[in-house]
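This is your field. Pick holes in the following sequence-structure pair:
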Amino acid sequence: MYEWLKALHVIAVISWMAGMLYLPRLFVYHCDAEVGSKQSETFKVMERRLLKAIINPAMVVTWVVGLYLAWSGHLYTAPWFQVKFVLVLAMSALHGFFTARVRDFALDRNARSQKFYRIINEVVTLIMVGIVVMVIVRPF
């Protein structure tokens, strides 16, 4: 059963990361859309659906299954796992930040630039790379 749960965990992580990489790109394009325009309203729907149908459920499955795997495999004492855990906490914080931005865009209250969203998209990438290195290379 452990191997099946690992597979489910990897599938959930891939889904979560796909959404976390795509959502800030939507924000970049949404910044250009005029408030109240058909384009802006379309972006609102896309952002909300991506968050509710893919990103949120994938994060929940990632956390639930991941915590079980860490507990059952006694991984929580390994230094590489502890670094990975901190990085996953950082990714979860970004998830919360993006959730708030979806709300801001939905209410036409975005206060950030395209450049900001381009940079934050790279932050997601860097955290993801760190997590993968910790899991695959286990440098310590």
The chain has a mean pLDDT of 97.
